[in-house]
Amino acid sequence: MANVHVLDHPLIQHKLAILRSKNTSVKEFRELIGEISGLMCYEATRNLPTKEVEVATPVAVAKCRRLAGKKLAIIPILRAGLGMVDAMVELIPSAKIGHIGLYRDPETHLPVEYYCKLPEDIENRQVFVVDPMLATGGSAVAAIDFLKQHGCKNITMMNIIGCPEGVAAVQKAHPDVELYLAACDEKLNEHAYIVPGLGDAGDRIFGTK
């Protein structure tokens, strides 16, 4: 699939297996979400542009590479996306963070926006939208729609678990967006939950169920 990257790194897959277990505690689940997000961030930023610089070491001058191009922004979709942010900020400490609040209507399964706060210069940044689950794709599409309305042109989507329905929805609405997943599962069930998935990521991160 064009622009869709399913990451099969052994460390990611090992941690994902533990994450999925119904017996994994809230503490361990939260930690694993961060660890997987950090590993995924490493892969999703592989093609960031760099420029050559000279650095004076204690011995001589070294020719090195530093990040060039647009500055970065991390935009979690509330609330579960918050669980992915800290590990990414550890790798990209200069990134600005915005928030988009969406919830899924229990009857229609469509996204409803309730909050949005973005960096003032969001249109000049390379944006990483993060949410652990890509189910129907409605929230992802709505968040990307909103970012594009604010002038964003360079957007990457990061989800830990997706499914064919969600991937197809994002690709159809936003074929220019790069999509990174740790796994693409079988399908959605009648309640629009990913199968086999891992349940409700937000409830498991925050211990609310």
Protein described:
Strand 9 (133-134), helix 4 (138-149) and strand 10 (155-162) form a beta-alpha-beta unit. Strands 1, 4, 5, 6, 7, 8, 9, 10 and 11 form a 9-stranded mixed sheet that branches. The model has no long low-confidence stretch (mean pLDDT 92). Helix 2 (26-44) packs across helix 3. The protein is built from 6 helices and 13 strands. The radius of gyration is 18 Å and the shape is globular. The relative contact order is 0.17. The chain is α/β, with parallel strands linked by helices. The chain has one domain (4-206): Rossmann fold (3-Layer(aba) Sandwich), CATH 3.40.50.
The gist of it:
This protein is an alpha/beta fold. The chain has helices spanning about 10-20, 25-45, 85-90, 140-150, 165-175, 200-205; strands at about 5, 50-55, 60-65, 70-80, 95, 100-105, 110-115, 125-130, 135, 155-160, 180-185, 185-190, 195.
